[in-house]
Amino acid sequence: MCIRDRNKQVLDSLKKKTTADNQMMIPLTSSLYVSGVIADRENFLIDLGTGYYVERNTRQASEYCDRKIAMLKENVEKLTKIITEKSQQIDTLTLVLQKKVNAIMAAQQKKA
């Protein structure tokens, strides 16, 4: 399951749950969660990074997550292309260096 599908499932489940289902685990750090209660199912705080948060409704939160996921996918594609190019460059350099080493060794053997 991709992140986008999971994002949609979470938002949809929050819309459908009753007031008895308002309990959830809230992440304080990547490994520490505390029990909490959802006070408002229509508005969410979105972490924009570097300590900035913004309040958005369900639709806006979903759109933000979709944009963020699209940006990350685009960045992965760009990095994959760069890595492939760098790998090809390394292979080319390795071949050139190997030829030079072989030439130097052949020259030394002729002298000996």
Q: Which key phrases capture this entry?
A:
two-stranded antiparallel ribbon, 4 strands, alpha+beta, 112 residues, single chain
Protein topology:
Layout: H1 3-16, E1 23-27, E2 33-37, E3 43-49, E4 52-57, H2 58-111
Antiparallel strand pairs: 1-2, 3-4
Strand count, sense and barrel status of the largest sheet are: 2 strands, antiparallel
Assign the structural class, choosing from mainly alpha, mainly beta, alpha/beta, alpha+beta, or little secondary structure: alpha+beta
Secondary-structure element sequence? HEEEEH
Query: What value does the Rg take, in angstroms?
Result: 27 Å
Distance between the termini: 65 Å
Estimated helix fraction: 55-70%
Identify the quaternary structure here: single chain
The parts where pLDDT drops under 50 for at least 5 residues are none
Q: How many distinct helices?
A: 2
Mean pLDDT: 85
Range of strand content:
15-25%
Query: What's the count of strands?
Result: 4
Shape: rod-shaped
- Which strand order do you get reading across the main beta sheet? 1-2
